[in-house]
Write a structure and sequence with these properties.
The chain is of the alpha+beta class. The chain has 24 helices and 21 strands. The chain binds adenosine-5'-diphosphate.
């Protein structure tokens, strides 16, 4: 077995094809799986070195030891790889200057274009052909290897941030990349128990955590964001808005929540010929990653009592190279009152891996054709790992925009429509978000207590109309591919820069709180008993928390005059000014730049406020009824079970008692037996009245007539004779 060395490669495979990615180029070759190849394939996939592969092929026992060793090495290597990437980005964007602080000029634009063109040739050097032998078949491959970066001391990329040495806690996040980016920006990584400035967590925190947050702390989730991040809640909110604004809210496919809306969906599907031929997509009500999704055009075959989401299937999506795709649009919310939404200019288009054909009974189970989730399609051998702009199963928005321009589509208008559906989706949950935010953070006056990156999944139909499919509160930050790293790292960096306003100065806020509490305590001392009670109630929970925090920090109380002069500009306007000057690659979509557009969105704010969000819609009433019915049914069933169980117990008890009962004395038992025997002997038939007899005869007559009229006798004789003949 000869394997080419000194090459950076990954291997991606599935039963029929062997796919090897040598740095930037992909090769595909037919092969037949055998055990050795399977093992080799796994090792190559996990980037084992060639020596390791050869060692394991000679001695399979070695795999365990090598895996452990590799894991250890990878942990230390992780940081280095990130630095390499950072340098590459730095190189591309211009030396040492963060792109968002650099004004593009013509030279830069030209350079960028040239860079884009030559990106592959610049980064990779084509080396000689190589041979790879697998399963006794020899393949000839033309390979590329990464150009060696010039040696010398590497500079850490320098970003102009808020100048605060803030701290970030990422221990509740599985993505190491967030910690790395935070560190490069100057954040200190701390544990959850410390007084962090920013807490980055993958899961949604409980109310207790929100309530315990100090005035300088921020968290990456809003309380109540589930209203748009669970499929069923999103559908409920969008359906409610659709009722209020039937023309403006056609931003998602027609959706029903089962079991409550089962009847409606069935009616819709049987309504007319067009709907009869319609395909529906069925999803679990709170699922993700394409799990449990299937297509059907027969809603009658669905169990009406199961909880799920039913949607009309968009059967004419926009296709690129014949493949269906969806867009993962990253959206940052930095404030809910006032509502401030930013959309990231770069994002990911995720492609299906089988060419698209409209659903038929034959292909509707082909998930590689109809679903665009990475988690589904990565399992297909056709998954394209190519890193070039115009190929690959994951592409950047910049590549999609270029494609759209080539096809003469209006790109700006298209993104304007996407911004519109994002704003409308957030607006559908806005009253809840605002209410929850104020309930959880009454004391946060300096900075926003929360920010959130939402991952909007958007599908575009062949008429270029975008539809929102779902919203993710914790979009994946895995960086399996180069495009992932390019997009997600920049996204995290720009987000952290944008949310770390200079106002979030921990020490300053602690000082202020201490001063406030000190003043209150002094007043308390001076005042008489009556006023004491009043003043004590005005000391908020946050004050106490912050005071104890400052004690825990061990800061010495600074002079009171040490306050920065923020007079004139309120905290909010300072935050806005900061955000506007640190947009990075974000664009602000709410509040809109265009005043007409802003007026247009005002109607949704106003009407939502009038119509109580908690008011009962017909669907919610129906849902309530169904759940009540279900609850009653379950209770009834339980009751019956209990009855059966208690009946059985009673019977068992009786039997037990009978068994335990002492036997009757023989004389008495004999007496009982004789009485029973005599009673039987003396039995005479009861008296039958004449009327009873008449009634009996009439019934017999009727029976006879019925038999005759229905020709049952003939039928019976006929079958009898048939059987006889056979
Ligand atoms: P999940 O949360 O499991 O990823 P999604 O709602 O995002 O569920 O759906 C998964 C995939 O199914 C989407 O990426 C999209 O390709 C496809 N899909 C979902 N809904 C529709 C629809 N109404 N019409 C066409 N395709 C859809």
């Amino acid at each position: 077995m000869k394997i080419i060395t000194n090459l950076k490669y990954t291997l991606w495979s599935k039963s029929e094809h062997l796919r090897i990615n040598f740095a930037d180029q992909a090769f595909q070759a037919p092969y037949r799986t055998n055990e050795k190849v399977g093992q080799l394939q796994k090792m190559m996939y996990h980037n084992f070195s060639d020596e390791d592969v050869e060692t394991v092929l000679q001695n399979p026992e070695e795999l365990r030891r090598l895996s452990k060793e590799k894991l250890r090495k990878e942990k230390t290597r992780g940081v280095r790889i990130d630095r390499e990437l950072e340098c590459a980005l730095k190189e591309r964007n211009g030396d040492g200057v963060h792109p968002m602080h650099r004004k593009p000029n013509e030279d830069d634009m030209e350079k960028k274009e040239l860079d884009n063109k030559n990106e592959v040739t610049k980064k990779y050097e084509v080396v000689s052909d190589g041979l790879i032998q697998l399963n006794n078949v020899c393949f000839r491959l033309k390979c590329a290897s990464l150009l060696k970066t010039p040696q010398g001391p590497r500079e850490e990329p320098h970003y102009v941030t808020s100048g605060i040495k803030g701290s970030i806690c990422v221990s509740n996040s599985r993505y190491s990349m967030i910690g790395h980016v935070g560190k490069t920006l100057g954040f200190k990584l701390v544990k959850e128990a410390k007084l962090w400035n920013i807490l980055w967590t993958d899961s949604l925190p409980g109310v207790e955590l929100y309530k315990s947050m100090k005035r300088f702390q921020q968290i990456n989730h809003y309380p109540g964001m589930m209203e748009i991040c669970r499929k069923d809640l999103l559908s409920r909110n969008l359906n409610r808005m659709l009722k209020l604004f039937p023309h403006e809210y056609k931003i998602f496919p027609k959706t029903w929540i089962f079991p409550a809306d089962y009847g409606d969906a069935l009616n819709y599907s049987l309504n007319n010929i067009k709907n009869k031929a319609r395909t529906f997509i069925i999803k679990p009500d709170s699922g993700a990653m394409g799990r449990g999704i299937w297509l059907t055009n027969d809603l009658k075959s669905i169990n009406p009592s199961e909880r799920m989401i039913c949607q009309t299937y968009i059967n004419k999506p926009l296709l690129i190279d014949g493949y269906k795709f969806d867009l993962r649009v990253y959206t940052l919310i930095t404030s809910v009152d006032p509502l401030r939404i930013f959309v990231y200019n770069e994002g990911l288009a995720r492609f299906a891996t089988s060419k698209y054909v409209e659903p038929t009974s034959e292909n509707s189970s082909d998930l590689f054709m109809h679903l665009t989730n990475y988690s589904v399609n990565k399992r297909n051998s056709q998954y394209d790992l190519c890193d070039n702009d115009d190929c690959g199963s994951k592409r950047k928005f910049s590549a999609i925009n270029n494609w759209l321009r080539r096809q003469n589509y209006e790109v700006d208008k298209f993104w304007g429509n996407i911004d519109d559906i994002i704003i409308k989706t957030v607006l559908s949950a806005w009253p809840m978000l605002k209410h929850n935010y104020h309930a959880c953070f009454p004391a946060h006056d300096k900075i926003q207590a929360c920010f959130e990156i939402l991952g909007f999944d958007i599908l575009v139909d062949s008429k270029m109309k975008p539809y929102v499919l779902e919203v993710n509160h914790s979009p994946s930050y895995h960086t399996h591919e180069l495009v992932d790293r390019q997009v997600k790292k920049a996204l995290i960096r720009d987000t952290l820069v944008m949310v770390s306003t200079p106002l979030a100065d921990k020490k300053q806020i602690l000082r202020e709180d201490r001063k406030r509490i000190k003043q209150r305590l002094l007043k308390l001392k001076q005042s008489d008993n009556g006023t004491t009670v009043l003043q004590r109630t005005t000391t908020t929970r946050a004050d106490i928390n912050n005071a104890s925090a400052s004690v825990a920090e061990g800061d010495s109380p600074p002079p009171l005059e040490d306050q920065p002069d923020t007079a004139g500009l309120s905290a909010l306007s300072q935050q806005i000014a900061w955000e506007e000057s640190h947009l990075g690659d974000f664009r602000r979509v709410m509040p809109s730049h265009d005043s007409d557009r802003l007026n247009y969105y005002c109607q949704f704010f106003a009407l939502q406020n009038q119509a109580s969000i908690y008011s009962e819609t017909a669907a919610s009433k129906k849902r309530e009824e169904v759940s009540k019915k279900l609850r009653l049914e379950i209770e009834e069933k339980k009751q019956r079970q209990m009855e059966v169980i208690s009946g059985q117990r009673r019977r068992m008890k009786l039997e037990e008692r009978r068994r335990k009962r002492p036997a009757l004395p023989r004389a008495i038992a004999e007496h009982h037996r004789l009485t029973r025997f005599r009673a039987k002997e003396n039995w005479t038939p009861g008296f039958i009245s004449e009327a009873e007899e008449r009634l009996r005869r009439t019934w017999m007559q009727m029976r006879g007539e019925m038999l005759r009229n229905n020709k049952i006798v003939q039928m019976m004789t006929h079958t009898e004779s048939k059987i006889y003949l056979n």
